[in-house]
Amino acid sequence: MDFKNMPKQRSHFLAGVAAGIADYQGISKFTVRSFFVITAIVTGGLGILLYSVLALLMPPPPQ
What we know:
By secondary structure, the chain is an all-alpha fold. It has one domain (3-57). 57% of the residues lie in helices and 0% in strands. It is built from three helices and no strands. The protein has helices at residues 17-25, 29-43, 46-57. Helix 1 (17-25) crosses helix 2 (29-43) and helix 2 crosses helix 3. The longest helix has 15 residues, at 29-43. It is globular, with a radius of gyration of 11 Å. The termini are far apart.
């Protein structure tokens, strides 16, 4: 996955990761956010860890 082509978005809830992924994949932000929440609940926090790692890896939104 090329993180340089998938920047965080300004229309963010926390760090803009879900909005950036949703815009890049062309899907709903709600769907991506739901995925992170469900993953966090089912795996005991793995979704939170994944979100945190992506927040560090993804570039900031374009100016």
